[in-house]
Each structure stands twice: as structure tokens, then as C-alpha cells.
């Protein structure tokens, strides 16, 4: 799994227990997987269709640096299936795991659209 993004946990990200608010973390994950899928599929209208069970393994506190990892599980005709793990950058302790996230590419009418991708491509490859 490649860890693409780092976030610094700030006071505005905390819940009443003074740990990272789960909703904030899910927002960060959803944004990162959307960006990843859009870049991979090269279709800007790519949206979240499904997230499997979410397992909060540990928490993060103010001042922690977390990193969001994403890996491709499969390519469908109009979708890409990903897995995500978030961990504490310094301790490497897992914070959350999501085993299956399905992102779907849409046409201008909001219908699933074939993307034609079958493997991971890197930015340097797609910008040629």
C-alpha cells in the first residue's frame, strides 16, 4: 500500500474526547480516494458508490501526523475498487482500515461510464 497524503491533527479536528473526530477522518479518506480514482481513471465525474465496514482500530490526538494509504483492488467497467488504511506517521500504528471502497465514473447525465482502464497508471505515464 502506498501512503499518499499526510494530515496534521489540529484542534478543529477533535471530538469531545479530544481525539480525532471519526467524521473528519472519513471526510479526508473520501476526498483522497476520490482524487486518486479521478487521476487513475482520467474522468473527473467519479464518485463514491460504496464503502465497506469501517474499522476504527485506534485513535489520533491533537498534534499527531497521520497518513492515508490507498491501494487498488480491482478495475471494473465503470469502477475502481480501492482499499484504504490510515496510520500514525510516527508510530506506524493503524488508526482505521476500510477494506473496500468502490468509486464509479459517471457520464454527463450521471450514468455509469466505461473508463477503459485495467491497471494502475502513474501520473508521469498519463501526462505524456
List the helices and strands and how they pair.
Blueprint lengths: L1 E7 L13 H20 L4 E6 L2 E3 L8 E11 L3 E10 L5 E12 L17 H4 L2
Antiparallel strand pairs: 1-4, 2-6, 3-6, 4-5, 5-6
Protein model, in words:
This protein is an alpha+beta fold and 128 residues long. It has helices spanning 22-41, 123-126, and strands spanning 2-8, 46-51, 54-56, 65-75, 79-88, 94-105. The protein has one domain: Roll (Thiol Ester Dehydrase, Chain A). It is built from two helices and six strands, in the order E-H-E-E-E-E-E-H. The longest helix is centred in the first third of the chain and has 20 residues, at 22-41. The two termini are 25 Å apart. 26% of the residues are buried.
Helix content: 10-25%
User: Radius of gyration, Cα only, in angstroms?
Assistant: 16 Å
Overall shape: elongated
Number of helices: 2
The secondary-structure element order is EHEEEEEH
Helix/strand-derived category reads alpha+beta
What is the CATH architecture annotation? Roll
- The stretches of 5 or more residues where confidence is low (pLDDT under 50) are none
What is the number of E strands? 6
CATH class: Alpha Beta
| Total of domains | 1
CATH topology: Thiol Ester Dehydrase, Chain A
> How is the main sheet built?
6 strands, antiparallel
Strand share of the residues?
A: 35-45%
End-to-end distance, in Å?
25 Å
| Average pLDDT taken over every residue | 93
Amino acid at each position: 500500500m502506498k501512503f499518499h497524503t499526510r494530515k496534521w491533527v489540529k484542534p478543529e479536528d477533535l471530538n469531545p474526547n479530544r481525539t480525532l473526530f471519526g467524521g473528519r477522518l472519513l471526510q479526508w479518506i473520501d476526498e483522497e480516494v476520490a482524487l486518486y480514482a479521478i487521476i487513475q481513471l482520467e474522468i473527473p465525474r467519479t464518485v463514491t458508490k460504496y464503502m465497506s465496514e469501517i474499522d476504527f482500530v485506534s485513535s489520533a490526538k491533537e498534534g499527531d501526523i497521520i497518513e492515508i494509504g490507498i491501494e487498488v483492488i480491482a478495475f471494473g467497467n465503470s469502477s475502481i475498487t480501492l482499499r484504504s488504511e490510515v496510520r500514525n506517521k510516527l508510530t506506524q500504528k493503524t488508526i482505521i482500515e476500510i477494506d473496500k471502497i468502490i468509486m464509479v465514473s459517471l457520464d454527463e447525465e450521471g450514468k455509469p461510464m466505461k473508463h477503459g482502464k485495467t491497471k494502475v497508471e502513474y501520473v508521469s505515464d498519463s501526462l505524456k
